[in-house]
Amino acid sequence: MARQDHRREPFWEAPRVRGGGRRSYRMRAATRRPRAQRQLLQHHRRPFARAHSRRAGEQARSPCASRAFEQPLRGRDAALPNHRRIETALTAPFRQKTGASMKFDIENALSRPEALEAIISRWTPQRETETVPIERSLGRVLAQDCHAQHSLPVHRTSAVDGIAVRSSDFEEGAPNTALWKRGEDFAQADTGDDFPDEFDSVIAIENVTLNENGGLTLPAAYEFKKESGIKRAGSFMQEGELLSRAGDTLTPKLMAILAAGGWSSVPVICKPKIAYIPTGNELVSVGTAPSRGQNIQTNSVMLRACFEQLGAEMIEFGIVPDVREQLGAAIDEALSKADIVIVNGGSSRGSEDYNSELLEERATYFSHGIKAVPGRPIGLAIVNGKPAINVPGPMIAAALAQDWLISGLIRAFYGQTAAPRVKRPAVLDAPLRGRPSFEHLARLVAHEVDGVLHAAPAPNGCTLAQNIREVNAFAAVPAGVKLEAGQTVEIELLDTVDWA
Ligand SMILES: Nc1nc2c(c(=O)[nH]1)N[C@H]1C(S)=C(S)[C@@H](COP(=O)(O)OP(=O)(O)OC[C@H]3O[C@@H](n4cnc5c(N)ncnc54)[C@H](O)[C@@H]3O)O[C@H]1N2
Ligand code: MOO
What superfamily in CATH does domain 423-493 come from? Predict the structure, then answer.
């Protein structure tokens, strides 16, 4: 996977101009000189080397057969502070049919880790297994431990291109090899070759001069070592050795190791199905030229790609208008088809924001809102034993929900815990202000200057598209905290997750 190059100049650093100075292209300049900014942005445009598909794309899928891994992942009764919840089936009070009544309780909202834990601890994923050819298993998650079915090499082989000899011939010092006969005193044995059992060591060919009469000469100073130049039986793998565990994600190297161990096909966990329901009267499909008041439904494009990277399948619904009955019907259909349901948009306080209350009505667990922005009005529910999440509509909010929540759910489905993202200290080039009551997930552009990592928000005045394209790091700024320019802070580099 390509890593982003943090040594590049940030895109708002103008190239040297006449007089040798650098122009500042911060917000003021950008708004006053939109054309200059446009040119600048074009000049420095370089798509980040985003991580594209660590995993294979579509993979062969045989019908899923057996149910597996049905044990709960965490204790179901994990006590979680600071959130309101409904724990009894269908006891949610029926709300008025207006989203305006849907007020999430900010003070008691969950933090991001609490929210993830709240869902995972109440969810027992229904996993099934299937068998796929090893060549088609990239990114799949093993359903069982896999042991080597044989040793490799089966018998010792030569480790070098050379000649196989008997160590007994060297017991009393260097033998007279000038009259040696091929096949009797030595045998050709190249790297990986088996050779007759009467020989037990291999001398690399560069130490051997083959004489015209068939004998050979070794250098005077040659030091023979018994059983040198060989690979022992089972030195690559031994029969019965554990090669890979249930829950491991298959990488190219792991695939080759399993293939070497006799696994021409492997049992893997069927990919989780995630139903995605885009909602909103204003939305039109990709490829439609938007009219006034319309917005293009693009979150499915982003989320489908994220799901595929993480080994999940999207069941995409058509755009559902903000009509309570239609939204409810889509949610019910999604619950019948998928392991996880994502309802997108309509999560906040708008007059047609029904989705969180529709989930709440159906939920055995429900919590609305997290103590972090962007993405704060997220609806978190367990319905029919499945996670059902009302992800906020704006692209950034949806991308962040994918980053900290949905990706965690996909890993939890597979029985995996989240791989911690790389954090590095960086010098802030601009202040970062926490929000009064929320963790602020600050999007940053990080770059290296003389071996030191620097980070700053993308300049004001960028379009959101420019901002999203350039952002390559996060910093979580705690509520009420102000970080000053020049301060060193821990940032999370986004080179392993294509979050937006
Ligand atoms: N009075 C208040 N207004 C808002 C609040 C608040 O607390 N009080 N919260 C704001 C925050 S924070 C967020 S985040 C958003 C959440 O919005 P919704 O989840 O209700 O989403 P919508 O209103 O349906 O849409 C918002 C925006 O996102 C676009 N969108 C929606 N779905 C998609 C999609 N699939 N692809 C692309 N874009 C999508 C939609 O067109 C809107 O532009 O609420 C704030 N308001
Ligand atoms: O919570 Mo939001 O800040 O508009 O994404």
Answer: MoeA, C-terminal, domain IV (2.40.340.10)
pLDDT, tens digit, 9 for 90 and up, residues 273-309: 999 999 999 999 999 999 999 999 999 999 999 999 9
Ligand 2 within 6 A of 10 CB? Answer: no
Report CA(431)–ligand 2 centroid distance (Å): 20
**CATH fold of 112-123+271-414, please?**
Molybdenum Cofactor Biosythetic Enzyme; Chain A (3.40.980)
pLDDT on residue 208: 94
| Whether residue 262 has pLDDT greater than 90 | yes
The pLDDT, as a whole number, for residue 111 is: 93
Ligand nearest to the CA of 347: 1
Ligand 1 centroid vs 110 CA: distance in angstroms?
A: 20
Name which residue sits closest to atom 3 of ligand 2, judged by CA.
Answer: 374
Model confidence at 62: pLDDT above 50: no
Work out whether the CA dihedral 310, 314, 320, 324 comes out positive or negative: negative
Q: For domain 129-151+236-269, is the CATH number 3.90.105.10?
A: yes
Read off the amino acid at residue 70: E
Q: Is 317 strand, coil or helix?
A: coil
pLDDT of residue 86: 52
Q: Which residues pair with 428 in a beta bridge?
A: 455
- Ligand 2 centre and the CA of 276: distance in Å? 20
At 14, is the secondary structure helix, strand, or coil?
coil
Alpha-carbon distance values, 133 to 140, 141, 259 (Å) = 11, 13, 10
Query: Which of these, 429, 424, 425, lies nearest to 484 by C-alpha position?
Result: 429
Structure-block tokens of residue 290? 């938007």
CA-based nearest residue to 157, from 183, 203, 190, 185: 190
| CA neighbours closer than 13 Å in the CB half-sphere of residue 115 | 28
- The verdict on the CB of residue 278 being under 6 Å from ligand 1 is yes
How many residues in total does the chain contain?
Answer: 500
> How far is residue 387's CA from residue 364's CA, in Å, rounded to a whole number?
10
The domain limits of the chain are 33-98, 112-123+271-414, 129-151+236-269, 157-231, 423-493
| 204/219 Cα distance (integer angstroms) | 12
In the predicted structure, residue 50 carries a pLDDT above the cut 90: no
Rounded Cα–Cα distance for residues 444 and 217 (Å): 67
How much is the mean pLDDT over the chain? 82
Q: Kindly give the distance from the C-alpha atom of residue 373 to the centroid of ligand 2, in angstroms, as a whole number.
A: 6
Q: Which atom of ligand 2 is nearest to the CA of 400?
A: 5
Task: Give domain 157-231's CATH superfamily.
Answer: Molybdopterin biosynthesis moea protein, domain 3. (2.170.190.11)
All residues at 6 or more sequence positions from 138 whose CB lies less than 8 Å from its CB, including other chains: 55, 56, 59, 250, 251, 252, 255
CA 171 to CA 198: how far, in whole Å?
15
